[in-house]
Design brief:
By secondary structure, the protein is of the alpha+beta class. The protein has 2 domains: about 70 residues, Zinc finger, CHC2-typedomain (DNA Primase, Chain A, Alpha-Beta Complex), CATH 3.90.580.10; about 45 residues, no CATH class. The protein is built from 5 helices and 5 strands; from the N terminus they run αβββββαααα. It has a 5-stranded antiparallel β-sheet with strand order 1-2-3-4-5. The structure holds zinc ion (ZN). The site of zinc ion has 8 residues, from loops.
Length: about 130
């Protein structure tokens, strides 16, 4: 099994919120909840919030030896920009179809288009519109 697959299997198994960004995996620190970046190629990670660091092995040991209070922190969600963009687009489209006033509908459509041009500029690697 490729290392990346092992990393994703770990986060799924322990229901830890994560987000892949190229060769990195972002997840909430199991000790303090801050955003942690793990390098997929060697699984090294360190937390800027509490200073904890390690690799997948040490993360696994942390989960296995954690108490209920630590488990709670695992349920903290990592901010996932692609999901957020999809939700914003979904809500905007919903507002566009519900708009009774034609001027409001046109204005919303204009905002929707401008927002997605901006997001494509800021996040080109995430591709098209949600
Ligand atoms: Zn931390």
């Amino acid at each position: 099994m490729k290392l990346a697959a092992v990393v994703f299997a770990f986060f799924k198994k322990y229901k830890i919120s994560y987000y892949q960004n190229h060769d990195e995996v972002l997840f909430p620190c199991l000790l303090c909840g801050s955003r942690v970046t793990m390098m997929i190629y060697n699984t090294s990670w360190d937390c800027s919030g509490c200073g904890a660091s390690g690799n997948l092995q040490s993360l696994h040991e942390l989960v296995q030896h954690s108490d209920e209070n630590t488990i709670c922190l695992q349920r903290k969600k990592i901010y996932h920009p692609k999901h957020e963009r999809n939700q914003i687009n979904y809500r905007l489209r919903l507002m566009m179809t519900r708009a009774k006033d034609k001027r409001n509908a046109k204005e919303l459509e204009s905002i929707y288009k401008k927002l997605n041009i901006l997001l494509a500029y800021l996040m080109p690697e995430d591709g098209g519109t949600g």
